[in-house]
Automatic annotation (TrEMBL):
The gene is nagB. SUPFAM superfamilies: NagB/RpiA/CoA transferase-like. It is an enzyme of class 3 (hydrolase). It comes from the Bacteria. Residues 16-228 form the Glucosamine/galactosamine-6-phosphate isomerase domain. Pathway: Amino-sugar metabolism; N-acetylneuraminate degradation; D-fructose 6-phosphate from N-acetylneuraminate: step 5/5. The keyword tRNA-binding does not apply. This is Glucosamine-6-phosphate deaminase. One of its GO terms (biological process) is N-acetylneuraminate catabolic process. Belongs to the glucosamine/galactosamine-6-phosphate isomerase family. NagB subfamily. Catalyzes the reversible isomerization-deamination of glucosamine 6-phosphate (GlcN6P) to form fructose 6-phosphate (Fru6P) and ammonium ion. One of its GO terms (molecular function) is identical protein binding.
Amino acid sequence: MKILNMGNKRLASEYAAIEIIKQVTEHPQTTLGLATGDTMLEVYPDLIDLINLNQTDLSEVHTFNLDEYVGLGEGDKDSYHTYMHENLFNHNSSWGKEHIHVPNGKAEDISREIKDYEAQLEAEGPVDIQLLGIGENGHIGFNEPGASFESKTRVVDLTESTINANKVHFERTEDMPTQAISMGLGSIMSAKRIILLAFGDKKANAIQQLIEGKVSEELPASILHQHDNVEILVDDTIYQQLDWSKSQG
Ligand code: GLP
């Protein structure tokens, strides 16, 4: 696992976007693992610029998003489906619509939706580059502390910490769902390469715990120590707070 101080969100976002454009240019049949949240808000505009500048054909690119709130989906302002379309997919017409996968939180049969999602991921994977953010409690996707390292796509209960962190994005905070569909830790680990981005004071504690090196289901992101191609991109705000004397390597 490499920790890189990128100085700021700007450079980290550009780096992530450049790695993705390189991948899809070299391998048109790429499968991308995509994430949402504030962390990714500068990655996607950079990626759109690079796609447009290079007139990249995305028709054979497959994408899988990490998660979606139960009860939300297409047409809902606060859904990750809407986030992804507004921030990325609507900005280029060459995305093959049938290759874009965001879990459907409004599916009538959620257990079927989960099974199908994991099956599609297995069929169209492995993911070549997986983007990740991290929760203040160390979650990745919506895999909250205690999630099994073997977990696959499923419905999860959100913790109070996550509800508090994310409800600010909802016009009426009481509308924030308490459950989500999330790709599992096992599913995330099958990606060939993982780029995790983290910015700002609020994420410093999670990154500190991560560098301490203890692999435990209490810190879901710690599973990444078991992956051999992970980059953790942080800003200087986080980097300056890290206590390397507690690091195991
Ligand atoms: C959210 C999402 C994660 C995201 C993380 C960080 O709850 N489910 O996929 O990476 O938590 O969010 P943010 O980037 O808004 O801080």
